[in-house]
Design goal:
- Keywords: Kinase, Transferase.
- This protein is of the alpha+beta class.
- The protein has one domain.
- The chain has a four-stranded antiparallel β-sheet.
- The longest helix has 16 residues.
- The protein is globular.
- The termini are close together.
Amino acid sequence: MGLDMYAMISDESFEREVDFKPGQDVGELHYWRKHPNLHGWMKTLYFEKGGEQQDFNCTPVTLTETDLARLEADINAGNLPPTDGFFFGASDGSESEDDLAFVAKAREAIADGDTVFYYAWW
């Protein structure tokens, strides 16, 4: 049990940036396990984009190039929000290199025409 976090890619375009149902043709771009501060950052983004599910569990949020630039800046500045939750574990700051590797992969996927979205299950 715990916080499992995924960045997924799809060749689909979605009508909304949140709370959509991806088709079957999706692939995993990146995976994190129990990195609650990144999840907290994504949760903030989800609500900024109009998300309505209060617990932000099992619902996607798309990531644009603008979102990735903001995420990269927040990672580099150490500004991921302290976040906790049931079985979430703890972020300790050692995740930054992996987070930046994700940003690079996501940018490449977007440049290739894919949609990138974040999804967590806990």
